[in-house]
Amino acid sequence: MSRYRLFGPAAVLVAGALAATAVLAGVGAASSSTAQVGTLATSAGCGKAPTLRSGTQNITTSGKNRQYILRIPDGYDNTRPYRLIFGFHWLGGTMNDVATGGSSGASWAYYGMQQQSNNSAILVAPQGFSNGWANSGGEDVVFTDDILKRIESDLCVDTSLRFAMGFSYGGGMSYSLACSRANVFRAVVVYSGAQLSGCAGGTQPIAYFGIHGISDNVLNISQGRALRDTFVRNNGCAAQSPREPSSGSRTHITTAYSCRAGYPVQWAAFDGGHTPGPVDGCSCDDGTRTWTKGEAWKFISQFEGGTSPTSTTTSTTTTTTTTTTTTTTTTGNPPGDGCKVTDTINAWNNGLTSEIVVTNTGSTAISGWSLVFTLPGGQTITSGWNASYSPTSGQVTARNVSYNGEIAPNGSVSIGFQATHTGNTGKPTSFTLNGAACTIA
After folding, report:
1. Which residues does the UniProt record annotate as the domain CBM2 (predicted)?
2. Which of 48, 61, 281, 439 could form a disulfide with 146 if both were Cys (CB 3.0 to 4.6 A apart)?
3. Please, what CATH class does the domain formed by 339-440 belong to?
4. Which pTM value belongs to this model?
5. Are 248 and 271 in contact (CB under 8 A)?
6. 3-state helix, strand, coil in the chain (%, to 5)
7. Omega cis (within 30) before 126
8. pLDDT tens-digit profile of 83-92?
């Protein structure tokens, strides 16, 4: 496998990135749809004869020419929605290093996801400026948005199953997307990362898996723990201090947190340094034999299209993680006896996001819900989270998904969507929950 001279002589660049992390603006989010958007869960490319081919792609984004490597699965079927996985390189690495797997070859291509996915995922390796991810002014986030837009307009993608992963600086970029595009990506995997590429937002939940060596002398494990703890908080996880292996043990310990339904957090600490490919039992860095690719794939493959599994238990082992999945079955939408809605709009140019919190102000639990509202003229939903939305304009009905159908008395549920607009960025003037009018706060 290629050596990860991520920082080596360029360590000063990373130190500078740590000292002056790029500040991300609320740049235009990807216009393609995201998880839990009902009929929008498949991309516009589904059913089309593709024009894209595997290999290096050129794209103009933020007025600059950039590149990425695309791998389309063997036997691609344009009627089948595929997972979409981004692999971001390290400082000094390249998109080609990620796409080929370096000296480890195909078994480590795209951090092992080419092998692990077995032609069930579309894979992307973007190229960073100066072989890094400074993300100045949010340009690398916009680059990612534009890649998504191009791929999904041409290929069949399950837009509820987008993932990002990366090592070191690439891990910092994946963390940046977790902060700013939590409603676009389903989960991220961060290998030996730190906050290097900014964190615009950083308040919404997203499934998160962090992997870090206890003896990392480039990005101390404390920096990886800090990234993890952002999403321990955001995902409503029970606080704990995960057990980590002792120096000299040459093992790894994986811990699954007990978190809010649908938003698992996982942490793997290993006895080793700054590498994404550790091997138990030796001081190796080998993408062919590493355990990380198997655990990363296990983490992201737990998610199914249009659903979010529920992580309900915490376990700690030296080699495996035990989680349980529960499903909430709703049998009807009984009317509630009181509800309150808050709606927060964040608008830019021709786009906006709407964050809606629905509170059950009644005395009985609501089991299964439908929230009806009318969008102002010119607004069209392009993506959403924590609910299915139909239709995408005019009078819209937002329905619960598998993991948030129950709203206890005084409890609430948070949903939201992204939309385009033609100038009117107003809010709906009324909301009804299961047929009953809600108070608007």
Report:
1. 332-441
2. 61
3. mainly beta
4. 0.66
5. yes
6. 20, 30, 50
7. no
8. 999 999 999 9
